[in-house]
Amino acid sequence: MEIFFLLFFGLLLLFIGGELLVRGSSSLALGLGLTPLVVGLTVVAFGTSSPELVVSIQAALKGNSAISIGNVVGSNIANIALILGLSAIIKPVIVQSSAVKREIPFMIFVSLIFTIFVISGHISFISGLTFILLLILYIVISIYLSKKDNQNELAEAVKIKYSVFISVLFVIFGLLGLVFGSDLFILGSIKLARLLGASEFIIGLTVVAVGTSLPELVTSIVAAIKNESDILVGNIVGSNIFNILAIIGISAVITSINLNQINIIDTAVMLFFSIIIFPMGFLKKNISRLEGFLLFLGYISYIIYLVKFSN
Q1: pTM
Q2: Which residues contact 50 (CB under 8 A, 6 or more apart)?
Q3: By the number of CB atoms within 10 A of the CB, which of 60, 84, 254, 306 ranks highest?
Q4: DSSP state, 258?
């Protein structure tokens, strides 16, 4: 009962906190004159990844770096295979924005870099700092390139305007929800890992990863229903970039990360799903219901593999 309480209320606070942070930060960004496209690819994407960030930083501070890494790998797999798959099943995803298309190769690039570090078995302070600098460069380039693109594509999807006061309150309470929610959820996930005899890495790959991906799931499903394909794909791709560069980067700056316990198969699965959407987005210009179903089936197969072989 204690574990259920910790996981449920931790997850609830994470979800509410992430939602408030997205609403408040989106409104503030638009009020400050940022373009809708930049908001969609950065603020919305990063906002929905904030639960992963807070959970991973809290885990790193408590010496549970396995949860940080498992959270990132599991979330990135879930974002594409589960969330994008389900969204395409609900309604085929049309990939139209040239800016979104630019993000896919960059996501593959950072995923490949992370895979190389996993093979090397270690991420140092300097490496983490490099990840953070890459993230800053990504944001700057996104802002620069967005000025050349159509600025009206995402306007209706993200333009939820509140007063500055309300927006700031949303951000503050959102952050508080994320902090307290992550504390409860990490404690519950560690207790669950010990109870089931599973490693903390596996719990990070599954329970924590899917739980902290709920903001992406809700945002993407709503975007699919509203035919806002660009914000859907931008949210997922931007979140995956943020997960690797910010979460791994900040975690490594806090404490060097030993990757010897990380299974290269899990990282390879993440890299595979990152690459597989390239031909869907670039060549076909859409992700069909069949492809969405195959992505979802791939995620279910991966979970079955974890249950059978990774305990």
Answers
A1: 0.77
A2: 17, 18, 21, 174, 175, 178, 215
A3: 84
A4: E
Q: Are 205 and 74 in contact (CB under 8 A)?
A: yes
- Taking the CA of residue 57 as centre, how many other CA atoms within 13 Å lie in the half-sphere pointing to its CB? 16
The Cα–Cα gap between 260 and 55 comes to: 21
**Measured between alpha carbons, how far is residue 216 from residues 33, 93, 237, 304 in Å?**
24, 15, 11, 23
Q: What is the pLDDT of residues 142-181, one digit of tens each?
A: 777 766 554 444 444 445 567 778 887 887 888 788 778 8
Place 33 in a pLDDT band, splitting at 50, 70 and 90.
low
Say if CB 181 and CB 49 are below 8 A apart: no
Rounded CA gap, 186 and 58, in Å?
8
pLDDT higher at 239 or 134: 134
Q: From CA 221, how far away is CA 291, in angstroms rounded?
A: 16
Per DSSP, 248 falls in state I
Pairing relationship of beta strands 257-258 and 122-123 according to DSSP bridges: antiparallel
Give the CA radius of gyration of the chain.
18
Task: Classify residue 9 by burial, with Cβ atoms within 10 Å: 0-12, 13-18, 19+.
Answer: middle
Contact 2, 192 (CB under 8 A): no
